[in-house]
Every structure is written in structure tokens, then in C-alpha cells.
Amino acid sequence: MIRDDLASIVDAAAHAAMDAGELPQVALPEIVIERPSRPEHGDYATNLPLRLARAARANPLDLARKIAARIPLEGALAAAEAAPPGFINVRLSEAWLARQVDVIVASGASFADAKLGAGQRVQVEFVSANPTGPLTAGNGRGAAIGSVLASVLEAAGYDVQREYLVNDAGTQTEAFGRTLVARYLQLFGKDVEVPPDGYPGDYMLDVAKRVKDESADAYLTASPAAPPPEMVLRGVDIMVEEIRSDLDRLGVRYDEWFRERGVYEDSVYDEAMKVLRDKGFLVEKEGALWFASTELGEDKDNVVIRSTGKPTYFASDIAYHFDKFVRRRFDRVIDVWGADHQGHVSRMKAAVEALGVDPARLHILIYQLVSFRRGEELVRLSKRAGNIVLIRDVVEEVGRDAARFFFLARSADSQMEFDLELAKRQSAENPVYYVQYAHARIAGILANAAERAPAFDDADVSLLQHPMELELVRKMLELPELIVHMARTCEPHHLPHYAQELATAFHAFYTECRVLSDDASLTKARLKLCLAAKIALARALALMGVTAPDRM
RNA sequence: GCGCUUGUAGCUCAGUGGAUAGAGCGCUACCCUGCGGAGGUAGAGGCCGUGGGUUCGAGUCCCGCCAAGCGCGCCA
User: What global pTM score does this model have?
Assistant: First the structure.
């Protein structure tokens, strides 16, 4: 990648200047290559001279001149100029830029792939909402962030596994089971109330009906106080099917649906607890067993086994992470959690550390909650309230593509307000259509060309010299850099903005430069440029899980 | 009270310590006898919450304050 190459070129130039005695021998800081915001500052810039000035006790502009003079102008590089107060601005060769069209077309669907991950195994776990109800619209944000982050990591060269943790154990599952039994018995005309801590939503009636259809009166003697385990499991399975289909509507797929119950059945839990016990992290107080997280700098300890003898959710989460790191040996694990879980981040990291795993291998990505409104009316999100917005409703209202684009376009750190009415009303003005339109427009031109223009495999791309043509190429070349940046920072929200900029660059080119003309050579070159732009747009859209239509 | 996150254009939001802070929507004025006008061009609109500090340089880093969201269970 040109940006990384440039860093080593600058590094070499600085060393060459030192060896020549033009600047004192000092340790170089990390070479930062940035993209200047103003075009007259070139394609890339480095502030190395400014950072070096103090140690070298020299004028930064002077340093810039000396280092710039030693940057070889060959291949991709056309100019390296010192600029006050001490930048080196680098300009790419226009001939080289034009040649990249051939490179992009040749790489096809793998355009912008990077090797950052070097095949490391990464797990991205996201959504993992309790299977006690259908997914809420708020879960959609986690789904969009998690799935796109996974795709980005894949593009960056990681071996990625997408996982959903199904919480099929614990108190909430028990409440779900009690509700299921109550609803089931009601179907037989029995006078049984849904327990106060249960789930009153109508969907539980549907679950109960399915259980009744499948098992008839097999559970007629069951009591809400003691739900039959296999009945609860069947109910959970039905709920998971629903969740799976909700996610499918959003275009989200998983490699693994991991059952929380599994950590108890497969001795993972016992092993994880043994590790903690052996290391002295488990202490008994007040009749319960605690994880001594204070020893790792936490401000308080946390219960892992209740005085009733039952493990807490934290205990199974510890076992679950033991499974991820020790059993399944992922190099890195990324958990995508909603802000309501943010209080668990540091204790989870402490637990992982206590298990003997470097906590840096665990990245917990917190996204702020989404609030929904319809015009002026605020919509409360609670599975127990009737007024809930489901992800399937959002997808139905605004469409999968717009929903994903919208959820994705904001940084995970910022809260977002989703006005369903606005999203629906403005759907034609939604940026996602702008991007898709650019793709469809290119597809239209290429289809048109297939009929009345010659094949362009042998196009001479060196004819691409118009500023708009080169601007479009520059924008395409940002994608590989962006993928690496997003993979490093776990920030997929840059993708929608990039896609929009790329679409703008294409529209600008299209307005300025006629593609199909009497000039056969230029027509071929521009058709090839169009194809390259289509490839780049399609890749950006594919990473977002948004369709790239040929017509709309 | 303590912790995490946020505060940038009328609205929704971008902005890897750099050079004159950006986009979309909305608003104003333009551009169709040629490939898809779901397009393009131009303009108005900003004490980047606030007060200090670090730095050659701060929207970006540090501290205080104000405001908002979310946490602070032997729930998950």
C-alpha cells in the first residue's frame, strides 16, 4: 500500500540525510503519513521535520527541505516539497494514478483487501440478546456494527468468526420458562396467570401455540413454578429461530450460535473456576463466592456463585471467555455490547486477566443506545412495555439497506436518535440511495457500452488525465487504507461516509467527462475507469451489507 | 455521590495533535437538443458546551465546571 511504502521512503530519506551529515544523528519518531485536507498540499504529507526539530535542534523547514530532497521521485511519487512551517508534501504521479485503474480492475472483487491481520483468528460476538423475546430496533445497531466490523476485519486479512451467544441458562430463561408454561396452560383453558416477573408480550402466545402444536398435551401437568426443562429449551429454540429470521432480514449471518448452557455441560465452567480458585481469585463472603477483582484494581468484588449455590451470569461469562480464549484459542475477541453493559467492561477484562489471558486480546466495543421517535412521540424500549419497536418493523418500514446504512453511519460512541417517521419520509433522499444510484448509473453505462462500444480489456489507461478522472482514482485508492484504519480502530462507521464521497467523485467525473464518445481510445479508457469505480463502490457496499443494484 | 460515553452549521452527524473545521438534509440562486436529473454548480449558515493547562501547533491530549445518555444487584 502506497501509504505504508511512503512511510519507509521518508524514513530512508531521513536516514540518508543523517548519514550525509545534513542533520544530526537522532532517533526518528514513528513516521506519520497523513492525507492533507487541502489539495494544494498534495496527496500525502508528513510532519516529521516538525517533530524532529527539537531533538535535532534545527529549523523544521530547513529539515523538511533536506529530507524532501532525498525522497526519490520514481514510481508513484511525482513531487516531494517542503512547506512551512515544516511539512513535506508529497504528490502522486498522474501516470501512476491512471495505471491503478488496471490494477483495480485486475483485482476485481478482492480490491482493497489488506494483509494487516496476517490470518490471525478473531471472533466477533455481537447482539447476543436474550432469547426471551424478538429483537428490538436497538439491537439493530449492534447487529449492523458487529456484522460490518466482521466483514472489515475479514477484508483486512483476519480469519473471522461471527458468534451469537444464546443465553439459555439463568434467571431470565427461568422467567421465560414460567411464562411459557402459563401461556401453554392458558391454551387449554386453564386459569393460570403470567407470573409478574414473566414476559407478557403476545409473542409468548405464539411460542406456546407452537409448543402445543408439536407436543399436544404433553405438558398439561406442568406448573409455572417448575417448567419442564425440555419444554423451556424448545421455547428457546423457537425464539432463536425468530431472532435468526429477524437478523436474516437485516442481512446478518452468523458462523456460530453458542449456547450458554454448553459451558456447564462441557466442564468449561468447572475448568475456568478451577483456574480462578488456584490463583486465589475466589473468596467466600456472606455465604456467596466472589471474584476478587479488587486485587486487579477494580473498585469492588463481584459474586460468581450465589448463596443459593447457583452461578451468576458473570460466572458463565467468565467460563464463556475461557472457552473463547483457552479452548477455542482465538487470538483476539471482540465483544460488541450496548451501553447498558458498559459497567461490566472492566470486570470482564479483569476476569480475563485472572484467567491468565492478556486482556489486550479482548476488545469490548460499546455502542451507545438508540432512542426512537415517531415525529414528536418518543418511543420507549422495553420488552415488557407494549410500545416496543422491533427490528423487523424498522426493516419493513425503511428497508434493509437504509436501516443498515443509518445504524452504521454514526460512531458507536455517540448516541443516536432514530426518527422512524423521518427515515421513512426521507427514504428517497437517504444517502444510501445516492450511493446505490452511482452504482446503478455505472451499470447502465456499461450495459449501454456493451451494445455499441468496443470491448475495453486492452484500454490504454494512460489516456486518463482529466482532473476528475484522477480524482476518482484517488478516492478509490483510499479504500484499502480505510479498511486498515477501521480494522485497527474497530470503527466501521467511516464506511458510509466513504461510500458517499466515492459516489460524489464518480458523479463529478460523469458530469465533466463524457464516457461514450467518437474517440474510441478514450472511450475504452473511460469505460475501464467506470468498471474500476463500480468495483470500488460494490466493495464498499458489500462491506456494509448493502446491495449494489444494477438498476433502480 | 462514583464510573463510562457524549456536547462541532437550523437538524442529523463526520473530523488518525497539523496548514483556511467538513458532509447530508433543510434554505437561496443556477445547470437538461448527448452516456440514468435519485445528478451537477454556486451561496448563506460555526467564539467546535465553558474556564484553565500541555505543545512550535488543540475541535482533537490533560484538569475543573455545566449539560445530556447509560451504568453503579447474590438481573442479564
Answer: 0.94
